[in-house]
User: Fold this.
Amino acid sequence: MRVTIFGATGLLGNALMREWRGDEVTGLGSRDADIRSYDQVAAAIQEHRPEWVVLAAAYTDVDGCETNRDLAFDVNCHGAVNVAKAATQAGARLMFLSTDYVFNGESCRPYEIDEALAPQTVYGKSKAEAEIEIRRILPKACVLRTSWVFGVGGKSFPDTILDLAGTRQEIEVVNDQRGSPTYTVDLARAIVSLCRQEATGTVHASNRGDCTWYELATELVGASQLSARVHPTSSDKFVRPAKRPAYSVLSLTSLQKHGISMPTWQDALHRYLDERRIPK
Ligand SMILES: NC(=O)c1ccc[n+]([C@@H]2O[C@H](COP(=O)([O-])OP(=O)(O)OC[C@H]3O[C@@H](n4cnc5c(N)ncnc54)[C@H](OP(=O)(O)O)[C@@H]3O)[C@@H](O)[C@H]2O)c1
Assistant:
């Protein structure tokens, strides 16, 4: 199988490039093809002739999106449309990475795949609109929503916490936002499996279980044997441009229907720490 990955230089893309074996995989960053340009996307797809296109490229700075609305929509929505059109033209399948931010974040039970889209941020709106456009252009596309992604090969929440815990004795972390962390390695393996199964429609993927950022930080600092003390705090102490969802747990029923069982987030976190310790 030939696969082309847009966003191969990012956090998830790095793991996809490491984990995807046994197929002919081409990874592209923004310097290889800017997804805002249909011509660049179409040229890349024509050159590599993939059976599958994985679209992991996005403008993911959720606070930056609030102040750069045009850029957010240019990359996350119009860029995605370019990729969907070029994939259709080439007869390729498409896997589009989306996010928990397409929901309102106010639920108290895991979001199912068919729940109403109600994004509260520019980032979420740009991704929700992309989902709708992609389904219109390429009804057989697979829209894969994920949440709280972490891993090596890019900046993510655990890096920030480990840096802070290495230099401070006390750290405060919000305890009123609940979600499911997702290790890039496990997500990459799920993506490979879904592509091999020729998955279509909407699928949710994260590690199993849920926690608050405070609970995640506590597990992380404990497992790293750092002496810093982690204290719970509330979101109003860390006001940011983009509103964070209070609850964004994704139901994994859709993933289980594809026979994919994700490890727990605690198991994933420990493997991430092991991976981080391996000298590069
Ligand atoms: N991180 C999370 O917590 C999270 C949660 C839910 C969903 N997601 C989704 O998962 C996917 C992967 O996220 P990630 O965290 O791996 O992202 P990331 O680390 O921020 O990487 C973004 C990738 O997009 C590429 N990119 C940005 N603008 C581009 C453009 N105009 N043209 C072509 N490529 C462009 C970047 O390329 P260069 O580096 O070469 O510029 C990079 O490879 C995204 O679709 C994101 O929306 C992420």
